[in-house]
Amino acid sequence: PAVEWSIDEDAELVHVLEEQKRLGNQSETGWKNTVWSQAANAIAVSFPDAKIKKEAKHCKSRWQRLKGLYKIVKGLRDVSGFGWDDATQMVQAADEVWDRYLE
């Protein structure tokens, strides 16, 4: 089955990675392999009732996905006509701006 992530699980993953970065477990080329196991363990402790237990490989894959989504959102924010709504934490634009963008 597909591994589903909640917003809170995403936040915990980011929190663990921030802590691991402070501890020096991120190199120029990426994260040390032990980081993903530590992230999986932290998520298991924080979310013991999750439908599917997140493994190290799931954490690594999710991080790659989150980075990709970040790049998309960052790119949209740089396009004329798009803005950011702090309340909803979402990119916003008028329908005609979206229509032009999606052409």
Please describe what this structure looks like.
- By secondary structure, the protein is mainly alpha-helical.
- The chain has one domain (7-102).
- The protein contains four helices and four strands, in the order αββααββα.
- The protein has helices at residues 7-22, 33-46, 56-77, 95-102, and strands at 26-27, 30-31, 83-85, 90-92.
- The strands form two sheets. The protein has a two-stranded antiparallel sheet with strand order 1-2. A two-stranded antiparallel sheet has the order 3-4.
- Strand 3 (83-85) and strand 4 form a beta hairpin.
- It is elongated.
- Pfam families: Myb_DNA-bind_3.
- InterPro entries: Myb/SANT-like_dom, SANT/Myb.
- Residues 5-67 form the Myb-like domain.
Rg (C-alpha, Å): 17 Å
Strand order of the biggest β-sheet: 1-2
Largest sheet: 2 strands, antiparallel
Strand content: 5-15%
Summarize the structure.
The chain has 103 residues and is mainly alpha-helical.
Q: Which helices and strands, and how do they pair?
A:
Layout: H1 7-22, E1 26-27, E2 30-31, H2 33-46, H3 56-77, E3 83-85, E4 90-92, H4 95-102
Antiparallel strand pairs: 1-2, 3-4
Q: Characteristics of this structure?
A:
single chain; 103 residues; mainly alpha; two-stranded antiparallel sheet; two-stranded antiparallel ribbon; 4 strands; Myb-like domain-containing protein
